Amino acid sequence: MAAAGGERRILGIDPGSVRTGFGIVAVDGARSRYIASGVIQAGSGAFAERLHTIFTGLTEVIAEHAATESAIEEVFVNRNIQSALKLGQARGAAICACAGAGLSVAEYSARAIKQALVGRGGAEKTQVGYMVRTVLGLQGELREDAADALAVALSHAQHDRFRRQMARSSPGGAA
């Protein structure tokens, strides 16, 4: 699905059970343009209400900005399994909002996102934020969750361009 002029609008999501970042970029060929970004504050109330806030917030973002596809960061399990489970449920609420709106959902590890944007999977968050601002021509600071979500969207666009290029160059691929 594409917006005006063949433009794709990619919703990137940095899920969290307290704060969920979102970022939307318009992609037309190799060009990416900033549309919107922000943070859905789920707060610290009852967990079911927080999940509902994430779901309804993203549903509104999708409708308001005419997103045509989505990408979300995968869960990274470090030490605290309870935090990982809550993060997984927040991802589920976000994925359901996207699927309910008819969007495809791509999933990327934090390492793959950093690799696509910075060129190395172990990049620091400040490097990722710098690249997001540079690629999109943004001035000033972005909230960390919003910058991370924009990085997810840009990473998806980069991975998609690479997949299309590989398909064209493979035997039997489209020219």
From TrEMBL:
Cofactor(s) it depends on: Mg(2+)
InterPro entries, alphabetized: RNaseH-like_sf, RNaseH_sf, X-over_junc_endoDNase_Mg_BS, X-over_junc_endoDNase_RuvC
Swiss-Prot/TrEMBL catalytic activity: Endonucleolytic cleavage at a junction such as a reciprocal single-stranded crossover between two homologous DNA duplexes (Holliday junction)
Keyword Translocase: no
Active site: 14, 73, 145
Subcellular location: Cytoplasm
Residues the record lists as binding Mg(2+) 1: 14, 145
Enzyme Commission number(s) of this protein: 3.1.21.10
Key words, A-Z: Cytoplasm, DNA damage, DNA recombination, DNA repair, DNA-binding, Endonuclease, Hydrolase, Magnesium, Metal-binding, Nuclease
Pfam families assigned to the protein according to its UniProt record, in alphabetical order: RuvC
Top-rank taxon: Bacteria
Gene3D superfamilies: Ribonuclease H-like superfamily/Ribonuclease H
Residues that, per the record, bind Mg(2+) 2: 73
Cofactor binding note: Binds 2 Mg(2+) ion per subunit.
Enzyme class, spelled out: hydrolase
Role this protein plays: The RuvA-RuvB-RuvC complex processes Holliday junction (HJ) DNA during genetic recombination and DNA repair. Endonuclease that resolves HJ intermediates. Cleaves cruciform DNA by making single-stranded nicks across the HJ at symmetrical positions within the homologous arms, yielding a 5'-phosphate and a 3'-hydroxyl group; requires a central core of homology in the junction. The consensus cleavage sequence is 5'-(A/T)TT(C/G)-3'. Cleavage occurs on the 3'-side of the TT dinucleotide at the point of strand exchange.
Family annotation (HAMAP family): RuvC (MF_00034)
Assembly description: Homodimer which binds Holliday junction (HJ) DNA. The HJ becomes 2-fold symmetrical on binding to RuvC with unstacked arms; it has a different conformation from HJ DNA in complex with RuvA. In the full resolvosome a probable DNA-RuvA(4)-RuvB(12)-RuvC(2) complex forms which resolves the HJ.
PANTHER family from the UniProt entry: CROSSOVER JUNCTION ENDODEOXYRIBONUCLEASE RUVC
Family listed: Belongs to the RuvC family.
Name of the protein this chain belongs to: Crossover junction endodeoxyribonuclease RuvC
Gene: ruvC
